Amino acid sequence: MVGDILAPALIRSMARDFSVIDLIHTAETMKQSGQSNSVAALYETWIQHNQENPLLYAVLFNYSVILSDSGNLTLAREQLDRAIALNPDFMPAHINLGRIYERLGTVGPAIVQWSAVLGRLAAVNGAAITHKTTALNQIARTLEAAGQDESAEDMLRQSLEIDCHQREVVQHYLALRQRQCEWPVAAPLERVPLDRLMIGMSPLSVAAYTDDPLFQLAVAWNYNMTDVGTPATALSAWPQASQRMAPLRVGYLSSDLREHAVGHLMAEVFGLHDRNAVEVFAYYCGPVAQDALHDQFRATVDHWTSIAELDDAAAARRIADDQIQILIDLNGYTREARTKVIAYRPAPVIVNWLGFPGTMASPYHHYIIADDWIIPPGDEMYYAETVLQLPCYQPNNRKRIVASRRPTRSEAGLPETDTVFCCFNGAHKITRFTFERWLMILNGVPGSVLWLLSNTEATNDRLKRLAAERGIAPERLVFAEKLANPYHLARYVLADLFLDTCPYGAHTTASDALWMGVPVLTLNGRSFASRVCGSLVRAAGVPEMVCDTAADYVSRAIALGNDREAIRPLRDRLVAGREDCVLFDMPRLVRHLEALYATMWRNFKAGTLPRPDLSNLDVYLEVGRQVHHDEVEVQTIADYRGWWQERLARRDAFRPINPDHRAWPGVPSAASASQARAAGDR
């Protein structure tokens, strides 16, 4: 009560100087504290002293809401009449005025007001909405291609505000925000709730968004159900392929057998295959390519087929007609993938390897190839496929071409004597949590800089601004322009230490750094994408560079940054071991790969081909999509299993899980307890 008595006097002395934002903020604060009389007085006083303000119509509208809520409908109507006179196109005023007339019992004038809204808007029907969203999406695509990411994002936002059920637009919108380091990435919009964004995010974006493998599994399953779908028919009988004798016919399906990160990783694999064990078929579904790496692939396979011009059914039939026994999906859920071809089941055995860092959660991918670090014992429950392992999951190109001339630090805009940290991962892998750790490291190593791959000017400026807000001089972020791979590799040696991102760490970029003798410091997570770099670092012979906690990651980086001499032995070890370490032993990898293929085929012939485990993924999607991962870094949750169990138990209290289905972690069901999927706890 005291506040209500004193507020009018304070209002009269201050209100005339308020901006509209200050006015609204003050009114909301007073309303929350119960000073409703003072809120009305605040608006009345401001209006008296700001008759020429261009936003007066909006303030009159807000004042009318206060008056209407208090029952003063006549005065509220007067404010709306004034607001409409000032801005006839302000639709909320017409809508509210119609409601006031309705409350006053005069329906005719109410209908007049609502009809005015319809008259001032273009026709709103299914065709108009479709035309507008299509135009917005096309403009966004064009702007993105021109490097205008911010404008493209705005077009997609407008499209989603009209129709938030456009899955492809949601995927594209969130991927754009990730690439621009727009945090929070999944910020709800007025007409686009958080859960709509979460279930619309692509599996690849989710891998960079959160270290939550159970949710990633559910998202991949949902993506397969909704975006890939089910073909009308499947090629489920392979009489000729089933009866073939050695060598095994192995088909590699990829859009990336060219100048591409995956192309560089696969560069030696086809040529190293033992032709007594494997007959190599390549099915290329990428764009027209004329680079040397693409030509090398065509020369080193036994059979090359481009399926880019074939529809899905025809491409699947071609693979089946070639009597492929084991089909390797080198794309997964990535750009230019042809997952719908695989949905036809064109081969008896289908394998997920290398292109996508996680489970496909499809009914037709039987195996996923990893290693015992990426998917350690107990973590198999995060994958629909059966897990098979190589000594190190990732192949590499030992014949990388490195430019002979190495640039100087000054040429690259780097300090000559201070520590240079680098990370050449794509900007979409940089999360708020990773960036904040990097700033802590820079703060702990005076004079050091962080060398990043350049993005759009707006994104570079955003990162610099965020650094400045946390007390780090923006010039300590140095951006490297994109160069052809030989020149890019040559400049790696200018860096002292590579700082990895998480949860989607360095893969090809880590191999490049390790090949060039640059130590990589990485932080382990639980998901596939967050553990690949740890696998590579261990296979390169420097396992001590794998950190288990965020605190360890920061402290190790600071210690090494302040003692550059401590980095030298690591560099020497990498260079000395390059010829015989597991990471770069491609003949060994291919021998093990062929052994895995033989195991897969024996299982098929014995009738023990595994069936993908897709149980309860609808439940995990329902529960997992409610988490705001921009605010919760799942990787740092010690009791990951308990965290999931708690949320699943709350859901079960209202909607029990069907006992005929597999139960959630730790809860027995009609299925055997040993089969219950669980979130592993490390």
What is this entry, summarized?
Helix content is 47%, strand content 8%.
Q: How many strand units?
A: 13
Rounded mean pLDDT is: 91
- Distinct helical segment count: 29
Low-pLDDT parts are 1-7, 660-682
Structural class: alpha/beta
CATH topology of one domain: Rossmann fold
Strand arrangement, major sheet: 3-2-1-4-5-6-7
**N-to-C CA distance:** 56 Å
The CATH class of one domain is identified as: Alpha Beta
Q: Under the CATH scheme, which architecture of one domain would be assigned?
A: 3-Layer(aba) Sandwich
Most strands sheet: 7 strands, parallel
Radius of gyration: 30 Å
Please, could you describe this protein's structure?
The chain has 682 residues and is an alpha/beta fold. Among the domains are: 76 residues, Serine Threonine Protein Phosphatase 5, Tetratricopeptide repeat; 169 residues, Rossmann fold (3-Layer(aba) Sandwich); 165 residues, 3-Layer(aba) Sandwich (Rossmann fold). It has a seven-stranded parallel β-sheet, with helices on one face. Strands 10-9-8-11-12-13 form a six-stranded parallel β-sheet, with helices on both faces. Strand 9, helix 21 and strand 10 form a beta-alpha-beta unit. The longest helix is centred in the first third of the chain and has 20 residues. It is globular.
Give a topology summary.
Elements lengths: L1 H13 L5 H13 L3 H14 L6 H14 L3 H14 L4 H13 L3 H14 L5 H20 L3 H14 L4 H13 L14 H7 L2 H7 L3 H16 L10 H5 L4 E7 L6 H5 L3 H4 L5 E7 L7 H9 L2 E4 L5 H10 L4 E4 L9 H4 L6 E4 L14 E4 L15 E4 L30 E4 L8 H13 L4 E5 L3 H13 L7 E4 L4 H7 L5 E3 L8 H8 L4 E4 L8 H8 L6 E2 L2 H12 L6 H10 L8 H20 L11 H8 L15 H15 L28
Parallel strand pairs: 1-2, 1-4, 2-3, 4-5, 5-6, 6-7, 8-9, 8-11, 9-10, 11-12, 12-13
Helix pairs in contact: 1-3, 2-3, 3-4, 4-5, 5-6, 6-7, 8-9, 9-10, 13-28, 20-25
